[in-house]
Write a structure and sequence with these properties.
This protein is an alpha/beta fold. It has one domain: Alpha-Beta Complex (YbaK protein), CATH 3.90.960.10. Helix content is 25%, strand content 28%. The chain is built from five helices and eight strands; from the N terminus they run H-E-H-E-E-H-E-H-E-E-E-H-E. The strands form two sheets. Strands 4-2-3-5-8 form a five-stranded mixed sheet. A three-stranded antiparallel sheet has the order 1-7-6. The longest helix has 8 residues. The radius of gyration is 14 Å and the shape is globular.
């Protein structure tokens, strides 16, 4: 199994994690599909979303797989008045990652990062390792350190 940029970055910082491979279904890249392949709770599988704020520019939100991002909460957490999802065609150029393989760690550029407060409900969570078919199993605390994330409320209630 080849290490990704995210895994190499974690190694360089001495942060523990586990690489978990799974079979990719290109027709369904949802967190539900990934959770099913991993045989894990979908809320333990976190998705990385790339947003554009009206004041601060691009930023990242990391939320549980079954949840929907609350754009107003994301904007407020990131110091913006408004925020919108970045168009899918722009994700690779901004992050170096593709949809379904976007890791919150090791992007081309360091963006502000925000993780939903529900992450602390789990001993381990899963995020993309930076390629489709590979997840990082990591403690929330280690992910927060590695991604430079701030914990906040990001999802709809």
């Amino acid at each position: 199994m080849n290490k990704t940029n995210a895994a190499r970055l974690l190694d360089s910082k001495g942060i523990s994690y586990e690489l978990i491979p799974y079979d990719v279904d290109e027709s369904d890249l949802s967190a539900y599909a990934v959770a099913s392949k991993l045989q894990q709770d979908v809320d333990q599988v976190f998705k990385t979303l790339v947003l554009q704020g009206d004041k601060t520019g691009v930023f990242i939100c990391i939320i549980p797989g079954s949840k929907e991002l609350d754009l107003k909460k994301a904007a407020r957490a990131s110091g913006n008045k408004n925020a919108a999802m970045v168009q899918m065609k722009e994700i690779f150029e901004l992050t170096g990652y593709i949809r379904g393989g976007c890791s919150p760690i090791g992007m081309k550029k360091k963006y502000s990062s925000y993780i939903d407060e529900n992450c602390i409900l789990y001993d381990q969570i899963y995020v993309s390792a930076g390629t489709r078919g590979l997840q990082l199993k990591i403690t929330p605390d280690n992910l927060i350190v590695a991604a430079g994330s701030e914990i906040c409320s990001l999802t709809e209630t």
